[in-house]
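--- STAGE predict ---
source: upstream dedup step, 1 unique chain passed
mode: sequence only
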Amino acid sequence: MTSFTVNGNPVHYKMDPATPLLWALRDASNLTGTKYGCGAGQCGACTVHVDGVARRSCQVTIGAIEGSFVTTIEGLTSDRSHPVQQAWVAAQVPQCGYCQSGMIMAAAALLAKTPSPTDDQIDESITNLCRCGTYPRIRAAIRRAGEMAAGGEPIAAAPPPKIDPADAAAAVPALSPGPRPR
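--- STAGE serialize ---
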């Protein structure tokens, strides 16, 4: 059995220790924010933090991180209040959105060690791929998040907290079936 901590919760996986962390997170823990991209560690869609370091979870086995602390996009914050998440929304970074959780995790790790990165430092540290090509917005969002984390002006319109699906459904008017076509 392999044991470590995921998003602050101890986990014990009864899986082969050679199982990639990506599949343990997605299949066993139902943490689907960590995306499968290439499976070769090239694209970064599966980026998570292992002991505070951005790692490609498709390339890390669960046996190799016994006793470690893993943070996924779901564990970064519970209410999307992390400066990177807020800056991402303000800069309208996502286009298709598939790579975004890995990008956000890579950016958060970068800002934790380099609070005011230059464009060269961003380019060197964030090697994740974005097929939509939103790199200029990504760089702008990372710079803005660094400013916010350093005590700069917060973003006025933070993303909304989690919405209860029942509340969201109640806000949508029910459609009446109307007459049936003949």
